[in-house]
Structure formats: C-alpha cells, structure tokens
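Sorry, explain these tokens?

***
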Amino acid sequence: MSQHKTPDTLQKFMFDGAPVRGELVELSDTWRQVQQRRDYPPAVRTLLGEMMAAAALLSANLKFNGAIVMQIYGDGPVRLLVVECDGDLQMRATAKFDAEAVISEASLLTDLVNLNGKGRFVITLDPKDKLPGQQAYQGVVPLDGDSIATVIEHYMLRSEQLDTRLWLAADGNVSRGLLLQKLPSTGGVDAPVDDDLATWDRSVMLGSTLRNAELLETDIETLMRRLFWEETIRVFDPQHPSFRCTCSRERVGNMLKMLGQEEVNSALAEMGKMSVDCEFCGQHYAFDKVDCAQLFVATEVLASDSSVKH
C-alpha cells in the first residue's frame, strides 16, 4: 500500500447555476501532529478529529481575518474538547478526559460529553485585529444531537439561517468531512426557486449515500468524482490546512502576570520555579525567580510611567 503523500487539502466547489456550495476536507499530517501530543481513547480521538474537520470546513467560509474556536465543555468522561482554526487554516486541538474512566469505543457524543444534560458547545469567532472595545462573537450551542455534525447543522440554521449538512469521520490516520450549504437565492422574482431547491435536495441525497467507512477510506478527489459525477460543478483552487500552535513565552508570561505577584511568589517559594506545558503542542516553559521578578518589574515600571504622565 502506497504511503499517503498529498498535503492536507480543503476543496471548495459550487453547483453550476444554483446557490448551493460544497467543501471537502482531508486532514492527515495536521491530524497526526495533534495526536502525537497525547494518547486519546479511540472514541475521544474520533470526536476530536471530527471537530477538526468541522472547524476547517466552517473556517473556510468566514468573512473576517481571525479564528474560529470550537469548545465542548463536557459533563461526562470527557471534560473539554478544543479546536482552533484561523483564516489560513492553521489549526491546533486538544482534549481533556477522565483518565480513570472506562471509555467504550462505541461511545456516542451524549455518552462522552452530555451524560447529565449539562454539556455545552461554544463557538467563538475571534477577529485578529479587533477594533477598540470589540469583543469576540460567542455562541453557546445546545448539544441537541448525537453527533458533532448534527449539533453544528442546528447551530448554522439558528445563527446563520443557512441550511447546512455535514458528514464527518476520523480515525487514527485521517480526518475527513463534507459540507453542503444552501445559500440565499440571489435571483429576482423570476428566479427558478424550484430548480434551486431541486439541486439542493439532490446534492443532500447524494451526500447521504456516503458511509463512514467510505469517507475514511477514500481521498477527497475521488469522493467528489464519485458523488457528483452527474452534476456540473465549479471547482476552486484548493487550500492546505496545517498544524500550528500560537503559544509563546510572552503569552505564558502574561498569564503568570494575570495570576498576580503574590500567588506567583507563593508558588516559587514552594517549587523554586514555575513550569507550564502547552496543552496543544506540549512545549515546556520554565520561569525561575529572576524571570518572574522581571515580569513584575516591567509591570511596575509601566505603572510608574503612567502615574508620572498624569
């Protein structure tokens, strides 16, 4: 069997003459890099991989320079799932789960994160260059479905008023997804709405023939050809997702400053240094007493400069 060599790919396409768009995404290297950081039970791995495919598919249609952040806060054996994807499809992801729990490979979304009905799904659209006072947009999504795909379909219909269908699959090697979306009709009063609806219904019917095993085993070029060979579709230049973590020593330093000098000094007295490991990429950051002193000296200097000016 030949080794998978093609880069991770997101492929957009439009159905000719109808306001229906589609996307196919394939994550292999990006997905493997996420898994290298932590050993996930198969059911957790599947959930995180499907979230990554979904984040890439949604991010590709964002009309702003920023990132989409998907977070599931669970009340089952999985406590947290996080996926970030920016406008360049640079991604990172992680999950926290109860290491003592016995997690069956057949566990569904409800079993993992919504055991007592208190799980929640938060989608944040975070602009890169915020205007003064601008906040990230955040939507809290009910976990009213037994799959990531169903939950996001409900979210898109409620928040964006867009009919959206998703098919997602992930295993230890690859994460793939298909998105179909019915856009608002742009025609005038004489626009063939029935034709648009027929194209949408037909595309969803074709997508619904896709089985999980087929999605996992078939590259996206073959999938597109196999599903839509009778349709006239316009294909756009492919995009290439990649793994990238945005952690840095400066960001960790800012986090320590937010804890406050008293708490940091207390931790230093107990442990001798502050150690922080990035949850996403595993990068280790160590701050000794001198490093921590410099963090707070810089803050004090800025504060004194500010008081002099006033």
About this structure: Residues 300-310 have pLDDT under 50 and may be disordered. The CA atoms of residues 25 and 187 lie 29 Å apart. DSSP finds ten helices and 13 strands in the chain.
